[in-house]
Amino acid sequence: MLANILKQNNVDNSGVRFDYNARTALAFVTNRADGEREFLFFRHPSADMLLHESELDVELISKISEEEITFLTGAEDPNDDNVVLDRLFHPNLKLLIVTEGSEGCRYFTKEFRGRVAGVKVKAVDTTGAGDAFVGGILYGLASDPNLYKDEERLREALLFANVCGAVTVTKRGAIPALPTKEAVLNLLTQAAS
After folding, report:
1. Three-class SS of residue 46?
2. Which of 17, 21, 43, 84 has minimal CB crowding within 10 Å?
3. Contact, 46 vs 22, CB < 8 A?
4. Residues 94 and 148: beta-carbon distance below 8 Å
5. In the 3-class helix/strand/coil scheme, how is the chain assigned residue by residue?
6. Residue of 129, 137, 148 whose CA lies nearest to 29
7. Catalytic one among 12, 86, 125, 131?
8. Global pTM?
9. How far is it, in rounded angstroms, from Cα 3 to Cα 49?
10. Can you say how many angstroms the Cα of residue 193 is from the centroid of all Cα atoms in its chain?
11. 178 CB neighbour count, 10 Å cutoff
């Protein structure tokens, strides 16, 4: 089970919730010619559909995509920062990140907000890019848990996370394409020159 693998690797899995009466959703992923992916889900209902707000730690850092903004707000403009702030940000939230694929990401805290551009690469398969992004920002937060309080440090961490996603899309497969720190630093160096 994934939760046990996380625990064996010293990852805090205290936020993981289980419903022993529900199954895990199945996701079938196909790749289009342009490297983008399409999903087909089997949910009958799956555990993620049965999660209640009361089971969540609301003082978390959240990451959502543009598509998820449209879904969560009832088709409002995902590019409108006011929609994000008015409908999705709440007083207990420390950091809200909106991923925008190859365009980068936007960030929102109580004190500041902004955008970090993406790094352009030739996409082969976009599967796993969001997971790589999350891994990259978690790496930054594990190294500096308060980086969300300093805009310059946050922007550096988000650029690192964007590059994690960019390296991932240059290879096929969700897990095999996940980058090493060395690969991310190499692309960061190339992008800076």
Report:
1. strand
2. 21
3. yes
4. yes
5. CHHHHHHHCCCCCCCCCCCCCCECCEEEEEECCCCCEEEEEECCCEHHHHCCHHHCCCCCEEEEEHHHHHHHHCCCCCCCHHHHHHHCCCCCCCEEEEECHHHEEEEECCCCEEEEECCCCCCCCCCCHHHHHHHHHHHHHHHCCCHHHCHHHHHHHHHHHHHHHHHHCCCCCCCCCCCCHHHHHHHHHHHHC
6. 129
7. 131
8. 0.77
9. 19
10. 27
11. 17
For the record, the structure tokens of 106 come out as 């936007």
- Say which DSSP state 23 is in: B
**129 Cβ partners below 8 Å, 6+ apart?**
101, 165, 166, 168, 169
Tokens at 7, concatenated? 């625990």
Residue-by-residue pLDDT tens, the chain, 193 positions: 677 877 787 777 777 777 888 888 787 878 777 767 787 878 788 877 777 767 766 566 688 888 788 877 776 788 888 888 888 888 888 999 999 999 999 999 999 999 999 999 999 888 889 999 999 999 999 899 899 999 999 999 999 999 999 999 999 887 888 899 999 999 999 988 8
Rounded CA-CA distance 98/159 in Å is 13
Rg of the chain's alpha carbons, rounded to an integer? Answer: 17
131 is catalytic: yes
